[in-house]
Structures are given as structure tokens and as C-alpha cells.
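Sequence only, no structure available. Ideas?
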Amino acid sequence: RYWLVLFILVLYICTLMWMHFFANALHFEDPDSPAGFIGRYNDDKVSPQLEPWCEPELDTPLSRRRTAWNDRQDCIPRAHFDNFGWGFVTVFQIMTGENWNVIMYGGMRATRSQNWEWAFGILYVLLLLFGQTLFLSLFLSMLLAKFDDFRDLLAKATEEKRQRSMHGGSSSTMASETGAEDHGDDDEEEDAICTGNTNDPCPADGGNMALVKADEQRHHEERHEQLARQQLQLRPLSTTLPGQTVSSRAGLYDGLGAEDIAKRVDEGGETRDSGGRNRGRRSGGLSAARDDCLRRLTNDKEHIVGNDLATTPNSEPSDDENDAAAQAAAAEKEKRRRAKRRALQRKKEWPYGWSWFIFPKEFFVRKWAQRVLAQTIKINGSSINIFDTIILVCILLSTLCMMVDFPLADPNGAVTVAVRRLDIVFAGIFIVEMLIKMLAWPLIWGESAYFWSPGCAWNWLDFTVVAVSIMGFSGGGPSELKTFRILRAFRPLRVVKRMDTLKNIVSCIFNSMKELGVLLIVFLLFLLIFALIFMMYLNGTLYACTEENVWFHRDAGDADFQVFTLPLCVSNNATDPPQSAQVQGAWSEIVAAWNSSATGTCGDGPHAGFDTPWKRATPDTPVCVGRCDPFWKAPFNTTYAAPTSLCPRKYKTTEELPHRCGEGSMDEFSGTLAAARARYAAQEAVGFEYIEKMQRHYVLPCGGTTEESVASGAPPPGHANSCRSRFCPVVDPALVDRCRRESEIHPYFCIEACGGDKSSAKCRSCKEEYRAACECHDFCTPLMKDAALCVEQGGAWEQVLGHNFDNVWNAMLLLIEISTTEGWVDAMYAASDTQWAPYIQPHRDASHPVWMVFFVSWMLFSFMFLMNLGVGIIVDKFMEMRAQGKDIISPAQLRWINARWSLQQRGRIFSMTNLHLLSPTRRRVYGFVEHPIFERFIMICIVLNAMLMALTVFPELEGGGVKWWFDVKESANYVFAAIFTVEAILKLFALRGCYWKDNWNNFDFTCVAATIFGLSMKLIGTGMNVSTVASVARIFRIARLFRLLKIRALRNLNKLFKSLAISILKLANVGVVAFLFLVLFSILGVSLFSTVSQDSESHNGDANFRHFPNAFITLFRASTGEAWNDIMHDLHKDEGDWFRSGSWCSPGYLFDPEDKYEVLRDKCLIDQPNACVLTVFGGWNPLPWVYWVTYTLFIGLVIMNVVIAVILEGYEETKSSDEAAMIDTCKHLWGSKYDPDHRMSIPFATAIRFIVEAISTLQAEGVIGGEHVEIVVPECETASGFGVDLSRFPLKFARALDVKPTERMEFHVAARQVLRFATIVEAAKSDKDVIQELDECDEKEGRKDVQRLLALEAKDAALQVEGDALGLHIAAIMLQRIVREAIGRLRRRQRNRAAMRDEAGNEIVATSAGRKEYLRRAATAESIAQPGGLTPPVAG
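Reply:
I predicted one. C-alpha cells follow.
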């Protein structure tokens, strides 16, 4: 909620700022063209135009010149900042990214005269970046944080619930364990089926969603059994077991807990009382008596003696008891089913484990099939399954064939014939594959069953594809059967099953489906609520008149729709073809009213043949538009037929379809166009006549009554040529009664006519007209008010948008469209122009405040909240799966692995090594080109060169005043070319062969060579102008600026760039999955829509599904959200929509390129296809919106969100550590202080000091954290050993290092120790635990990255040093010192004891002579007590 408050505050501030700059500024003579600016900045920067509204055009009639504010906005675009409301919505529109560039260009046009357009362009870009890229991403990050918090709370609550459920001591736990053991292997298999956790060879990716209910049932069962055991522990039991009475069993189990009861029941399969007598043998498998006891405990609670659990026979069971009883019954049913399966498994009875229910497991053919499936070969140490590899290659080749083939291809062409025959071959291969697998494994029951095992969803997919291929072998057949052949497009998905790298991504997608399904339910719930609201107020209102010069009620001064209707002249000749009524008269500016005599009387002059005058009684009296419905069929069991004058005979064969060839065109296959026309001329005449009549519409009286005829009782004057009499002469009596009832309760028609008096002539005439339209509703469409005036004056009343809110399904689909930000502003503008009722011409901003709020609210809720919630679900699931995959490795081990990977992937540390071998001149040149100042100078030159190229304009400025600028540019180009050439020469001299080992040097040399070649050609005057190419090549040198990321101040930016680089590599798998789905949808689109007409506005020659390349490009464009809904609406047009638009389409059952290719080719219908989209259920066309909504939600909401998850993962990996910065620090310290000659090895003692200093430097720079480390390296006083006094070396530091003492240490070894120590310092655990974890890191045999790392390190000779680690050496020295000291102490004690006695063993007397003897003997003993044979270790 705080984010929402902040977001609204930001919108408020930005709206005020943009109003300050652009209020009254976005005024243009034509808002859709770049010319004719009339806004506030147009008066030569002197006096701004502050006129808030547009002036009416001078040629507009005075009666139609409106002074209201919303009538004077023709010069103002819909997105403007003239008031706060629309300014607020426009800023919000920019933040959603919908047509923001159009608004920006308008603002730049408005300020062009002030020369500020570039500044305001930057302002719009900043608003977009701040609003969409930054602020909405902040909302996403907050949403993900809430996900983490909620997951922690949920885990805590689950743990607390588990602790409460386990309350009752260890006996309950033991009972659960015993029960788990009793379930046996079959229960484990069944649980694996539900959860997907098994070692079965059939993969379990995607889970098994069909068994979620069974999993929940098992959970309830286990929970119920657990509670029952707790009750048994707490209460004495006085119930009976099977076959016993209460009296005989009373007290048998009194005072016993659940485990004691279970023990007595399970021991030997019998129960015994205290006397040792048998009390019944258990039956029905394992622990049946115990299970029956628990069941009776739940169902017969009146026998349980206790406080709160005991009930009386007359007491009513509580809700909890009823729930427990229901759960117990379900648990009992589940137990019986499991017992049956266990018995079947133990007995190995048919059909468990049998293939095809007829082949047992030992059948030799099954063993052969299993050997075929398991056959592998070794390639480069990797085991590859031969069968799966062959099938994978076949799948890829089959997919390639489907990509090449398309319906409009010539069936007799060589490529088409080859591809379609190969398709048959591959279908046969896949059939054989399926049969082998069905033979090798059980069909339904048994381990690894084909249709019922972990991951069997992939087998179902294979079975569906194979079944469709078998149907394709039949050929021909009904169109519905051919439609199923499009399911072959799912073949590319079979690639995922056979590639583990892709399977992880797909597993994340499918494992997210459960949570996404819950989100979808919530989304549909709110979608339904908003759809009902929009439908309630906007149904029938999103229509407008297509004719401009039409007089509406508000133009005639009848805004209340009370009196204004037009007089019409109707033909009374019922035998002629129908003719639309004509308007009589014209508008008079003199009297400001309609002058009916302006065009003469009916039957005379222009109205000749239209003898009957007719006029609607009231504005809400309907007038009918007669049109034939191409999908109309006579009602069942009737003889009704459509009038031939309205609905002619439809074409029935492909030959009757009209051609689409232009005049004078030639056809290379069938000769001239004239020959083709002559061939099909007679048959095409039927098609031309049908199309011509189907495109017509007739404006006629619905029934022909008038107010005067009803009042006088005379026959209706227009009845003879009314819509009902011409098109529906026979009406079903039941329909007449229904229409009479509807006319009394219709919410729109005849409301004003019958408002005062329902018995008036106006009311009765209006109802008669409505009943006439209702009785002929298949052909007559009633219109009233402005819609009636529109069609009477020759216009057409059509939809404003491609969709509408006329019913709940259309409303939901339109809201789904705008939730993707596509077309939401157009829908909002259309709704803001409505006048709250149907059949009224929209008026700009007639109701804008209300719908402005509703549409912005829906966008906030759907686009910003629900869509981002989907992002959160997928990211959360991705991170969860990532954590599950790394639960066998600690964070410290992961950092250690990444650090070693970074070090091993560093190719060359220094440009050159062994600098002491170079000549002095070459050494100085090398130091010059490698100096940081030289590198920075070259980068500055690169930036200046790129900026100079950016100042190039077209057309070039001419004239003497700017000639100096051209001279400066030309001279600068020569200077930069010379600098880059000198740089390349110096590096070549210093590096020699090492120059070509750096990719950046190769790139620089290519740029320099191209520059020199271009300048040479220009100076020689050959006429070859290649300088432009050379300049473009030099521009790419700016990529070297990425080296600036190594600067310490830009280290955080370097992390972001590194996360981007890591994410790009990881996105390869996501890209492959997205590519597979794009291929799938492209093949589906080609199969469904390749023959559809391309004459629409969006589905045209640029965006279509004619063949695979066009389909792929179209779908890729749509994946960015660009106009996908417009293409969907164009594809959704049925035959009637094409006729109403003045065009036509061929029925799908006649447009068959496979059987009628030559006919369609001769009619130019192959080059210009115009088939209708396949319809079902008599004209319903759901395929386009099912296809596009599925594609948009899946690609936009799922696949693209997985991309976000991968990028976040890459960012998390780079945020925790910065191995590159550590290695760079080691490189700088090594080369500048410890190894200036780049010998790549230094003495062991020096290397130890390097390690210590490197760690201190990294901590001082803040690269690594942890407590500050201070280590003193003890110097060795002699030349022996390794230069370090190992006896005084800190053992803790030595154990942290993974180094073996040698005379000299390589750079890779020393840097590896720095990275290892940094990992230990940054870890949150104790040093001892972290060191142990790092030592055990290489033992992770299950991780492929560890195995690859070990294989890479095995190739590094510096790491392959014989001997023991430094810690073992120091430990040995310390152990030797301890042993030496102990032996010395023992010898001294022995010496003292020996010195106290003489040679005879007598104790020496404490005299002067005795003391001398004692000292002599002690000195002798001291020389003997010195230990020998213990020397310090030497190198190696």
C-alpha cells in the first residue's frame, strides 16, 4: 500500500510538471500529421497562444458549430496535458509503455519552434525509464520480497503445525514409522507417481498433476491415523475387535498406548489376552486388525471412554466428528485399494507388470525390447543411449520437414513430395518407437508403466502425436479429422524429454503451473467481476457511424431523442429485387430544421420508383437493416428457406469460387488469364453473383407501420416492402408469441414512445415495428436513434474497436487484451466517448472521468499486480528448484568452486612472461604500452573518435561558414588513425607473437588495417570510397571501454556487467526452450492460418502465416506485445464480417490446396489466398483467440518470466562475491612487487608473504569482508628449508592453505590460496568447519560442475605437485618438537636419578666430593640423553 501511495504521488508530481510544459501546447491542425502546429509555442517565441480549445472550421454549418468544450477538441490529440485528468492518464500511459513514443513526438513537435525538441525528447525518455524501468521494477522487487516473507511465514506455520500434530511422544513417531514400513514397496512407488520422486528410468519432469487429489487424500489419511493414535495414547480403549463382544474384550487393551496395541496386534499375526489365549488372527495383509481398530475408534466414538472424546448415545455428532468420519471412510477406501495393489504385486498376478496384458515380464520379446532401449555407447567418456539419440535425430529432422512444408505448397513439387514422404517415414519410426516401449514396459499397471508412471505425461504426448500420424495415413476424410493433424506440431516438444539441460527449464515451467493455476483462478475471478461491470454499462455502446456527413439528434437540437426522425420514401414494388429506402429532403439552415420537400415528393424526381412515404413514429422506433447470414440454416424439422433475392445460392465447388487475378496478369502454369477465365467463366458466375448479393444490405421498415396508420387502423403503408414481408413471409407462431412478450419488456426500444401512454399510436406503432424485426431476426437487424439516422442517410453502424463488451465472454477477452497493455488506451478513449446507452453516436469525452478511473484501476490491478505476481511465482519456483538442486553443497563450497572456476578460466594473466629475457629497448617499449596512463590515453582517443563520428549529420552542411568544421573533422580523423596505428606498431614490436593471442589486439589490428586501406584508396584516387566502412569499423573500438570496469570506482558496475554476461550464457537453455515453443506455435499457425486472407489491416503481407519464416517472424514480433491483438481480431473475422466489410473469403472446405491446387492456382488464390478461418458449431470461430491468448500468456507470462528468474540468479551469484576483482588484485600485486619480470613463479617464502599481503589488501579495499587478518610470517635464519621457519609458522593459517611446500610457487597456486583464504574469511561459520567443508568439496561426485573443474585442474601442471600439504609438514615438525621435548624430559629424569648414585649403586653423600661426582655423572648423562635421527623436512 505504501508503494501505491508513493506511485500516485509520483504520478501527481509528474502530471503537474508536464502540464507546466505542455498545457495548451499540443494543438495541431491535424493531430495525426506532422504539419500545421497551432499551439502555445507557435508565435515566433513571442506570445504563447493560450486559447484552450480549437476554433470550429469555417465551412461547418452554423447549426453544427458547437461551443461546448468537448466539441472543440479536433485539433487536440487524445493524449494531452490540457487538464489534470487527461494529463494524469497520459503520464500513466507513458509509464505503461503504450504508444509513449507518439506522445513524445507530439511534445517534440510542439516545441520545435523553440529549438527545445531534443531536451523534451530526453525528458520523455527519462519519464519512461523512471516510471517503467525503475519504479515498476521496484514494485516487482517488493513483490518478490513479500514472496520470501510469506514463504518463511508459511514454513514456520507448517513447522508449528507439524510439531503440534506430533505432540504425544516418541510412540506416535514409532507408530508412523511402523506404518510406513508396512506400506511396502508398492506404496513407495505410488507415492513416487504422485510426487515425481523416483529413480525410475522414465523421467518425472513436470510432476503428475492428475494425482494431486490422491496425494491430498493420503495426507488426510495419515493425519487422521496420527490423531487416532494420539487418542489411543491418551484414553483407555473399551471397543471390540472383529468377531468379539464388548464383554469379552472389555479391558483387554485398557491403559495401553497405540504402539502397545499395535505390538500386540502385530506379534505373530495374532492377539493374545493376559492368559495367553488366541483372540483372533489378523487377516487381509499387514496390520489389518490394527487398521480396523483405528477405523472403529473413529467411526464409533461413543465407545471411547474419556473426557472430551466420550459421547453419549443420544448426543449429536459435531462437525469435527462428521469430518473425521468422512475422512476415515475415505482413508479406509484408499487402504483397501492399496492393499489390493500390494496383493497383486506380491502375487505377481495378471495384469500387473504384463505388457499389452498378454506378455509377461520374462517373455523373450520384452527382454529384447528392453535391451534395445538400454543399448549405449561410449564417446569421449560419456555414455550415450543409441535408441534415444536416433529418435532425437528423427524428431529434429521431422521438425525440419514440418518447417519446410506448408499448405500452399505445390503438392506435386519435388520438395513437397520429398518432405511429405519423409513425414510418413518418420511417422512410421515413431510408431515403431512407441510399440517397442509399450512392449518393453507394462502398459498401465506395473513398474515403469507406459501410461502410468513418473513422467508419463511425455509418453502421453508421444502417443497423441503418433495417433495423429496414424490418422494422417488414412488420407481424405472429413475436415474435422484433418484438423487433428495439426497436433503433429507438438513433435518439437519431444526434444525436451531427451535433453537434460532443457528438461530443467521445462520442469520449472510445469512445476509452476499449480501456483500459476491458482493465480489464474484469482485472475479469472477478478476478470469476471470487472467484465460484468464493463458489460453492464458498455454493452452495445462501442459502435459509431462510419459516415461523416450525417445529421444526428444532437445536430438537430433533439439531444433528448424526442421528435427528430427522417422521412423516407419506400418502394412498394414487392416483385423487384429489394431496394433500400431513400431519405426525403435535406437540412435547412434558414429554419434550422429538416425540410422534407427539398428533394421533392416520393415517386417524383430522384425518388422515382419509391412511391410510399414512411416515417418512424419516434426516435426509439426501429428501422431494419436486411442482410443475409452466410451461416443461416433452416430450423430443424421445418421447410423454411431463405429468400433468394437476399440469400442466393452459395458456391458449392472450388471451381465456382471467383478468381482474384488482376487485369492483364499472366499465369506461368496455365497460360494466359483469358484462358483461365474461359475455363471457369460459367462456374465463376455463380460465385460472383453470390458475393455481390451477400455484400448488399437493405435499409427497410421493419413492419411498415406508421403512427397515422395505427391510429386510423389503415394497412401499414410500407408493409409490402418491409423487411419482414420480403425476407420472412412465414413466421413460426411460437416465435410470434415470444416477440410479443419481448416487445413489452425490451430495455431500449419503445421506452420514450410508451413513456406517457402505452395505448398511444406511437407506442403501438413502435412495438409493431419491433415485433416485425424480432420475427425476422435472422435477416433483419433493428436500429434506433442515432444508429437509425446513420443507416437511413447511407452510413454504416459499426464497431469502434475490434472487440466489444456486448457479452461477458467478449468483455473478458477484451480485458485480457488490455491487461497486456495492448490497446488499453484506445478502449479507454472509446468508453470515455460513450453516452451511457446503445444506438447513440459517441461524443468525445462524454463520460471520461468514470471510465478513466475504471481503466486505470484495471491496469493497476492486472498489469502491475497480477502479471507481476506471475513473475514472482515463477521466480520463486525457479529459486526453489535451484536451492533443491544445490542442497548437497554449502554456500562456502559454492563460492570456492566459483572462485576456482574464475581462476582456471583466466587464460593469460600477463601479456608476456619472462621479461628478463627481453632486450632493454623491447623491455622499455613493453612497459610503455602496458602502463595504465597509455591505456587511458588510448581510451580517451577512442571516446573522442566516437563522439566525432556522432556529430555527422545528413545532409551535410554546406557553405563557407562551416567549411572549417569539415577541415577539423578530416584532420581529427587522420590524427586518430595515426594514433591507433602507432599503438598497433608499438604493441607488435613489444609483444611479437604474443600480440595475436589477445582477441582485443586482433580486433584493434583489423580496425587499423581497415582504416589504412580506406584512407589509401581515398588518397590514391581510385574512386573506391571505403572510408565509411573503415569509420564504422573504428566505431566498434569503443567496446574497449569495457576495460574501464576494472577501475575501483566502477567495481559495482562491473558486477552488474558480469551478472549480465553470466545470465547471457545461462539464457542459452531458456532461449532454446523459447525457440522450441516458437517453432511449435509457428507450425500450428501455418497449419491453421496460412490460407487466411491477407487483406486485413494487421494480418497483411508483412505479418502472416503463409509459411514458416513469416509465421516465426510474426510470432516473434507478437512476443514483444506488438499488435498481437489486432492480428487476432483480423483472423477472427468470419465470412459475414468479410461480406460486411465489402470483401469476401472462401469457405475452408472449398479452399483445399492439397486436392484443388491447380484450380486455386489458376484463380490466383495461391498467390493471394483468401480462405476463411475454420469455424465450428455453425459459424463459431474460437481458434484465433484460443491460439493467441494461449501464446501470449504462455510466452509473455511464463517463458519471459523465466528469463527474469535466470537474470536474477546471475545477479545473486555475482552479488555474493567478486572473484574477478580478487584475481586482478593478485595480478597487480604479483607483477608490480613480487615478480616484476613475470617469471610466474617466486620463492616459497616470498609467495607466503604475497598471500598474506594480498589478503590484507583485499580487506583494505573492501573486496572481502570478515574480521581483519594479521599474520606474521616467521623468517628462517638459515638457508635450509623453504625460507620460512615452519616450526614457528601459525598452524591455523597453514591449515587454511591448500599448498604443498616447494622451492618456488606458481602464480596460479598462490592466487588459488588467496581465493581459498578469502572464502574462509567471508564464511559465517568457524574456521575449522569451513576448512573441513572446503576439503570435502572435491568429493561431491554428484555435481557435474565439480567433476568438470577437477578435470580442468588436472591439466594445470602447477597444481600437480608431489608431497604433502603445508599443514602436514608443520604438524610433523610440531609433533617432532613435542616428541623431542618429551624424550628430553625423560632423559633428564633418568640422569638425575643416575647422578644421585655411584657405580655401586649407593646414594652419594651430600659432601663437596659428592657434589663433584654428581656434576660429572650428570654431564655424562646429558651427552647420552641427546635424541638423534630427527631432522626437519626438506623441500619435496
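The mean pLDDT is 74.
Hope that gets you unstuck.
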